[in-house]
Amino acid sequence: MAGQIDATLEKLGIILPEAAAPAANYIPYTVSGNLVYVSGQVPFVDGQITYQGKVGQDFTVEEAADCARVCALNILAQVKAACGGDLDRVVQCVKLGGFVNCVDGFGQQPTVINGASDLMVEVFGDKGRHARFAVGTNALPLNVAVEIDAIFEIS
Amino acid sequence: MAGQIDATLEKLGIILPEAAAPAANYIPYTVSGNLVYVSGQVPFVDGQITYQGKVGQDFTVEEAADCARVCALNILAQVKAACGGDLDRVVQCVKLGGFVNCVDGFGQQPTVINGASDLMVEVFGDKGRHARFAVGTNALPLNVAVEIDAIFEIS
Amino acid sequence: MAGQIDATLEKLGIILPEAAAPAANYIPYTVSGNLVYVSGQVPFVDGQITYQGKVGQDFTVEEAADCARVCALNILAQVKAACGGDLDRVVQCVKLGGFVNCVDGFGQQPTVINGASDLMVEVFGDKGRHARFAVGTNALPLNVAVEIDAIFEIS
To answer: What's the CATH code, domain A4-13+33-154?
Structure first.
């Protein structure tokens, strides 16, 4: 029997990616008490990096919001792994930390990170509403456009 | 009967702003256990954005520290809302995360963010002492000079 | 009788620095519940700042990873202080937040921050594995190359 969140994902036509395995001495998530700390996720799709470039130069705000959504799907894959596969154990999305690789003077980081924030609420409803920061940066790993980390509370 | 922290605020001549309402699917704060996670706050004053520009170019270090203080006032407004209006429930300011929109090579982020750190200790005394990071960035939302997020422990 | 982690440090030839004292109204760490929040650490060695410059211009990736290791040693010094001197109380390294002062387009922040991540696992074994973000920035305090903050769980 699929869980309620799995049913929501199916209704939304969202297939979560495989949770990427650890690549080094840092790992994709840790659990402390009932909090899951998810490492900064970048726009990997099927093991391939995507969205390499700067927002405001190589990508529009809309494209960057799509990139943020891809990062958020990778966050959800890690949270699902942390929950032993059962996303119904999510109590709330506590916080997102959003970094946008952008040109100087770019000021629409909130609209970019909304691509991730909106996904959380689509999937979890009010449990998906979260605190966050959305800031710019001059450089990200592999020159990706967006990196997002997260804290979730689970039961 | 006003609380002790409200009395301190009055003595300091500090009137907290209204806590800004959620603008999107992210919200100004979340509560998990006894921790309040406050979203990144920018220098809104009476609903108007202020301090738009780069530190080391458009603003001096002193002006930027004032900007950090304005961000911190907005943090306190959110913490007050999270406490149901009673700031005496604050156990400690656990952490501030400070981002300074600055020119390359600028190195006085700590002095800028002291504008927020100092306010916390003025208001809460030793309970206001906190861990923090203070870093630079090439771009912030709406081109503001400073963005600060926070974690508070409440009872 | 030395603790197990102290013995590991000795075997690795690692002498932890003195935990730097608070320099302002922010402090080097706070403890909330069983979590230690460590302030952003920069490459101080014996009270002197080191590694001042930009990665990809003034420092190679390898040099920057050494800088990250120095930051991580300062983190461990603060965690030891938070544990009352007994690092055996560390349950896990929960999260590192890594900022790399780098030129535009630099994309090897993960390799840089591995200098810190690797140290955690050398010292704590599996308890040292952590979530993290690794991002770029155009400017850091005192123009250092790397700043890292941390969350640890202790018993």
So the answer is: 3.30.1330.40
